[in-house]
């Protein structure tokens, strides 16, 4: 059906029934009460099929949906028929699935006979009167248990089976473990179908999607009624289906909670479900259930909600099905990083109206754009925030971006988009803008981007505005030339008027004015306010005139006045502050050259602060003005600000002085006190100097850019070096790998530091370079380490221990640029130097050996050599460090990883158990280091086949990560990824799918963190593979592209993983029949695998076969004939595996479980650069989707080369 509204329907009524067992009788009792009230109000007798336009149900409720909508029974008759079927299949008894299915078919056949319905009647088209009510039943295919499909009683645009009613009831209830699958389709393409209750037990979302596709996006809604069967029972309704039942219960409750938030406030969505499930223990279960449900319906809130539901269903709302279909839940609404509105904000009517008008105006081919242009401090950011908060219901996503540089725009957009829908992992600004232009998933077209502080003249904002005709962009800037970007949306924001400024100052300083005729609710205290006098107004007017009516300066003055009760004396304070300003406007940081009175107001506030608060501002003035993690101060204090991961050069007095300053500011009593720090922040907040902004699970500090710059400029030249060193100390203290979840936030602050100059100490540069490396700034990190190594070598010479430490790190970053051979060469040289100078049993020698062992595993799979090295490392560390040390734990972890690669799982588990006991004793059960060892052990369980233990441990890990780092910290995705993989390997595909979706859709940390964690990337790869198997080739392509672009080849079995992602990308494109792109991708795969594995590797040959196939398809598409240069006219096919000793080389067998499109039978002539005449040929025979595919390889005599287009 085309996507247009049905004119015969005024308001659409949709009924969705949760899956369950005999408990579904409670749904019918609730529906009976609903219909009774409808009949009473309409004064007419109605069947559910005459009232609802769409009914959907899953599992047992799918049977009910068929009885109600297809057989057109009353609620009472449906209850009797359903109870009859339940008794026939004996849900509470131990029957085999085959026996229970047979009973269901027999009883359904008898039921149809009683209603005079022919046994062979089909779900769609055979029964009269079904046009007014449509019934859809979700089901799954055994081959692909992740894609929910529909049985429909009506014709639709999407194809679907049209089973008999008996078959439809059997499919609806075909819960694995209870009933047998139902076979459908012709013999050659037959598939087994089962109920979708495992994964879609609450089908409301599927019902909305179906209604959107069938009735059209403009169809208005009357009622969306969802009826459940109760919360989880104490034990299962049946034994065979226990696990599925429990999963279905959890899925139902999770979906219900999701929808409660999703459709909150729409007044057309209603959900009813008894408070708990009963178990069918006795023959009188149905009577007990009736009483239980009746008691539920008598509850006052349920009664009132049911009345509202009936009234809504009889009316036509303004809500369209499009609105329901695209409504986003709170987890996809992106307001993370949106600063709170200042409590001192003064509304300015005219610019607010102009912003609103500009963003409502549409320009073809472009989002609506508004540019708020004005001096710094005029309130541009605040008025933009006011618009965002006032109009938040108009948007699904409000994305606040620091636009002070191209880097901050790109990082901000990518991070915010990843928070909206984690299945989208844009790795470039182009990809991010493309997602905004063509939204899908949880990303909707209803977005607002606020580009704040877009003052940099070198940044072309046109490069960051999506090319689309939806969405809105609000820009704040001091750069007046940007008005040319969109002249129609230009809003100049000047200083406030005299009246506005005076009122702002008095309201902030004295409280809002109370009108003498105001009437207050006697139960509420009136707002506090100091009565205003004529003199108050005169003083305020004089002050704001002196401050040039600049909002920021006015608010600063007002905060000072409020704290010091000095409205009448403030002008004198200004004069004193102005008299001590010792430089001219030409050297001020702000190039717009404000008058001295404005800066005097800032000085007045700064002078009113405590010494510690002023020092804190001075330190913070050397980092970026926004997104500084508050928790970093506490982390730094835990090491007393002395954490130093690298000791390459001796420290100067600057280091000890910076420690003294930090301890003086943050630990004035000698120890860290969180309450003391909170009081310090509160002091700054009192003067409106800092704002606390939640960004996911981390609270960020944000300073106004003008005040931030002023705090820096006010530092005496003699103090600048010390305060910058203190700021650097804070950042370095955040570089411990235990706190790596903060690293993406630190990168923006590190970028402001002169890492390439001699101003920073080498030890600090080394620590900060590690963060840059983790954030994929490989080239910059490499350059820093090159400089560090050169400096240390000049000072200490080639063989000094400090020089070799720098060299070891330089060797490691060589791998980031693909210089693997150079890395290994340097590591071996360093080991030789350390053995000669320090001996083979020194700790530094052991460290270098540990690095080389990892290289052996990464580069050449030389596991035996790696094991020998790591065994020595463990022995040395135990001898020199005593029985317990964290580096010993690391050594055991490394050795265990090697044992797993060698499939020696028993030794690996023994090592990990010892490591777990040790790290728990050292740091506790809930430390990140402990959880990482637990994670590795869970992986060992999975690899060794102990999947139940792996699943339990992974679930425990997930909860522990959430407990210590919030909803979605750095390693929580890792744990979820491993949990998903565990589900996959246990065959629990729907649980795996659900877990992966939870991972990629969660609102925790920025997804950029996940890019640095191999387990999270593994999860993306699983999801990409899962999407491919489910024939979602576009999604598989998108995810594979992200993996290829993520630099996945830097850790672990990197080459294999990266090439696997590239292979999957090529397959996804091939399956979309984009042959030109596929040819280019397969060429790249062939090139990568030839270099990594050689010409004769089975994977290389398979990739060449695909390249040949896609080239042939491209030639067909272009209607060209391939010119074949024959080198031989005959070829001989031999049987598979029968020529082991053939002189031309052994054949290669390859089995893959990746489904592929059918490939034409026959021979594809292969070509490699190094083999002039082919000796091997791959023939793809009978390859079909969803089958295990065997690729037979044969020995072939000399044949022709591939056509030139394949070369």
From TrEMBL:
<dbReference type="GO" id="GO:0046486">
    <property type="term" value="P:glycerolipid metabolic process"/>
</dbReference>
<dbReference type="Pfam" id="PF13174">
    <property type="entry name" value="TPR_6"/>
</dbReference>
<feature type="domain" description="PNPLA">
    <location>
        <begin position="15"/>
        <end position="212"/>
    </location>
</feature>
<dbReference type="Pfam" id="PF13424">
    <property type="entry name" value="TPR_12"/>
</dbReference>
<dbReference type="Pfam" id="PF01734">
    <property type="entry name" value="Patatin"/>
</dbReference>
<dbReference type="InterPro" id="IPR019734">
    <property type="entry name" value="TPR_rpt"/>
</dbReference>
<dbReference type="InterPro" id="IPR002641">
    <property type="entry name" value="PNPLA_dom"/>
</dbReference>
<dbReference type="InterPro" id="IPR053137">
    <property type="entry name" value="NLR-like"/>
</dbReference>
<dbReference type="InterPro" id="IPR011990">
    <property type="entry name" value="TPR-like_helical_dom_sf"/>
</dbReference>
<keyword id="KW-0472">Membrane</keyword>
<protein>
    <recommendedName>
        <fullName>PNPLA domain-containing protein</fullName>
    </recommendedName>
</protein>
<feature type="transmembrane region" description="Helical">
    <location>
        <begin position="51"/>
        <end position="75"/>
    </location>
</feature>
<keyword id="KW-1133">Transmembrane helix</keyword>
<dbReference type="InterPro" id="IPR016035">
    <property type="entry name" value="Acyl_Trfase/lysoPLipase"/>
</dbReference>
<dbReference type="InterPro" id="IPR027417">
    <property type="entry name" value="P-loop_NTPase"/>
</dbReference>
<dbReference type="Pfam" id="PF13374">
    <property type="entry name" value="TPR_10"/>
</dbReference>
<keyword id="KW-0812">Transmembrane</keyword>
<keyword id="KW-0443">Lipid metabolism</keyword>
């Amino acid at each position: 059906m085309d996507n247009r509204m049905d004119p015969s329907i005024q308001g659409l009524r949709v009924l969705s029934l949760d899956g369950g067992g005999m408990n579904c009788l409670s749904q019918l009792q609730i529906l009976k009460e609903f219909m009774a009230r409808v009949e009473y109000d309409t004064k007419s007798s109605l069947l559910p099929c005459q009232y609802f336009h769409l009914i959907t149900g899953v599992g047992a409720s799918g049977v009910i949906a068929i009885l109600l909508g297809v057989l057109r029974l009353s609620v009472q008759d449906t209850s009797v028929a359903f109870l009859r079927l339940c008794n026939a299949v004996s849900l509470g008894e131990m029957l085999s699935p085959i026996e229970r299915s047979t009973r269901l078919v027999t009883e359904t056949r008898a039921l149809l006979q009683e209603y005079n319905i022919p046994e062979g009647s089909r779900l769609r088209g055979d029964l009269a009167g079904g046009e007014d009510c449509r019934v859809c039943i979700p089901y799954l295919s055994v081959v692909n248990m992740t894609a929910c499909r529909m049985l429909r009683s009506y014709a639709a645009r999407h194809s679907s089976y049209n089973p008999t009613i008996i078959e439809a009831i059997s499919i609806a209830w075909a819960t694995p473990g209870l009933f047998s699958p139902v076979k459908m389709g012709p013999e050659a393409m037959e598939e087994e179908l089962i109920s979708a209750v495992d994964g879609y037990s609450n089908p409301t979302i599927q019902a909305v999607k179906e209604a959107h596709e069938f009735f059209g996006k403009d169809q208005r809604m009357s009622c969306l009624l969802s009826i459940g069967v109760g919360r989880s029972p104490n034990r299962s309704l049946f034994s065979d289906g226990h696990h599925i039942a429990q999963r279905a219960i959890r899925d139902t409750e999770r979906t219900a909670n999701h929808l409660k938030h999703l459709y909150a406030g729409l007044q057309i969505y209603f959900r009813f479900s008894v408070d708990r499930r009963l178990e069918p223990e006795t023959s009188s279960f149905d009577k007990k259930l009736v009483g239980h449900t009746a008691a539920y319906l008598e509850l006052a809130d349920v009664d009132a909600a049911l009345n509202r539901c009936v009234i809504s269903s009889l009316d036509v709302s303004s809500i369209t099905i499009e609105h329901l279909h695209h409504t986003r839940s709170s987890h996809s609404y992106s307001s993370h990083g949106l600063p709170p509105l200042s409590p001192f904000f003064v509304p300015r009517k005219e610019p607010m109206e102009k912003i609103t008008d500009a963003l409502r105006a549409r320009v073809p081919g472009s989002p609506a754009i508004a540019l708020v242009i004005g001096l710094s401090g005029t309130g541009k950011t605040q008025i933009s925030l006011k618009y965002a908060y006032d109009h938040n219901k108009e948007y699904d996503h409000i994305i606040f971006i620091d636009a002070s540089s191209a880097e901050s725009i790109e990082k901000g957009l990518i991070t915010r988009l990843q928070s909206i829908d984690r299945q989208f992992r844009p790795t470039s600004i182009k990809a991010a803008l493309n997602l905004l232009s063509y939204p899908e998933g949880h990303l909707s077209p209803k977005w607002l981007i606020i580009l704040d502080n877009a003052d940099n003249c070198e940044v072309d904002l046109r490069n960051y505005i999506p090319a689309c005709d939806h969405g809105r962009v609000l820009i704040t800037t001091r750069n007046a030339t940007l008005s040319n970007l969109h002249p129609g949306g230009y809003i100049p924001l000047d200083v406030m008027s005299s009246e506005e400024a005076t009122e702002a100052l008095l309201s902030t300083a004295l409280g809002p004015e109370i009108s003498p005729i105001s009437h207050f609710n006697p139960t509420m205290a009136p707002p506090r306010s100091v009565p205003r006098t004529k003199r108050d107004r005169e003083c305020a007017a004089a002050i704001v005139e002196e401050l040039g009516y600049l909002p920021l300066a006015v608010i600063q003055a007002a905060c000072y006045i409020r704290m010091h009760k000095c409205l009448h004396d403030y002008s004198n304070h200004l004069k004193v502050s102005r008299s001590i300003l010792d430089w001219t406007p030409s050297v001020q940081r702000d190039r717009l050259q404000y008058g001295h009175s404005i800066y005097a107001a800032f000085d007045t506030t700064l002078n009113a602060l405590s010494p510690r608060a002023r020092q804190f501002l001075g330190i913070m003035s050397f980092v970026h003005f926004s997104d500084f993690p508050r928790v970093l101060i506490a982390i730094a204090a835990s090491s007393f600000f002395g954490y130093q991961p690298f000791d390459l050069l001796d420290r100067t007095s600057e280091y000890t002085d910076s420690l003294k300053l930090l301890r003086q500011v943050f630990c004035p009593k000698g120890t860290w006190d969180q309450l003391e720090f909170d009081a310090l922040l509160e002091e700054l907040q009192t003067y409106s100097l800092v704002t606390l902004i939640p960004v996911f699970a981390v609270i960020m500090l944000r300073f106004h850019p003008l005040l931030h710059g002023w705090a820096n400029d006010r530092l005496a030249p003699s103090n600048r070096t010390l305060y910058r060193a203190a700021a650097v100390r804070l950042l370095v203290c955040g570089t411990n790998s235990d706190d790596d979840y903060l690293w993406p936030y630190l990168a923006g602050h590190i970028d402001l530091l002169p890492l390439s100059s001699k101003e920073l100490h080498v030890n600090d540069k080394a620590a900060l370079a590690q963060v840059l490396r983790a954030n994929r700034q490989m080239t910059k990190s490499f350059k820093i380490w090159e400089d560090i190594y050169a400096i240390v070598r000049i000072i200490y010479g080639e063989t000094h221990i400090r020089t070799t430490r720098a060299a070891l790190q330089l060797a490691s970053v060589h791998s980031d640029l693909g210089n693997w051979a150079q890395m290994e060469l340097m590591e071996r040289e360093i080991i030789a130097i350390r053995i000669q100078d320090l001996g083979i049993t020194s700790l530094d020698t052991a460290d270098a050996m540990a690095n080389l062992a990892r290289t052996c595993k990464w580069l050449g799979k030389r596991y035996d050599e790696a094991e020998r090295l790591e065994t020595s490392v463990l022995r040395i560390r135990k001898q020199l460090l005593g029985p317990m040390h964290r580096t010993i734990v690391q050594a055991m972890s490394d050795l265990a990883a090697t044992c797993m690669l060698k499939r020696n799982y028993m030794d690996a588990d023994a090592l990990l158990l010892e490591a777990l006991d040790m790290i728990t004793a050292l740091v506790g059960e809930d430390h990140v280091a402990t959880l990482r060892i637990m994670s590795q052990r869970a992986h060992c369980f999975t690899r060794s086949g102990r999947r139940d233990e792996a699943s339990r441990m992974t679930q425990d890990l997930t909860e522990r990560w959430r407990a210590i780092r919030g909803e979605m910290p750095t390693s929580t995705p890792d744990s979820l990824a491993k949990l998903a993989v565990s589900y996959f390997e246990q065959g629990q595909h729907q649980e795996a799918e659900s877990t992966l979706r939870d991972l990629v859709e969660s609102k925790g940390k920025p997804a950029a963190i996940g890019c640095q964690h191999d387990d999270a990337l593994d999860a993306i790869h699983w999801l990409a593979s899962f999407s491919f198997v489910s024939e979602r080739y576009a999604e598989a392509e998108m995810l594979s592209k992200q993996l290829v672009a993520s630099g996945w080849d830097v850790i672990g079995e990197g080459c294999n993983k990266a090439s696997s992602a590239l292979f999957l990308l090529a397959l996804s494109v091939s399956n979309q029949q984009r042959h030109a792109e596929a040819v280019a991708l397969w060429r790249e795969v062939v090139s990568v695998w030839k270099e990594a594995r050689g010409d004769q590797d089975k994977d290389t040959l398979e990739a060449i076969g695909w390249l040949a196939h896609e080239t042939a398809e491209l030639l067909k598409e272009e209607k060209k004939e391939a010119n074949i240069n024959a080198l031989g006219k005959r070829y001989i096919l031999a049987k598979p595996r029968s020529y082991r000793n053939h002189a031309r080389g052994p054949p290669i067998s390859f089995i893959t479980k990746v489904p592929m499109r059918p490939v034409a039978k026959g021979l594809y002539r292969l070509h490699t650069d190094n083999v002039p005449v082919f000796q091997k040929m791959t023939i793809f025979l009978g390859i079909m989707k969803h089958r295990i595919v065997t690729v037979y390889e044969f020995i072939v005599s000399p044949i022709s080369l591939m056509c030139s287009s394949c070369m």
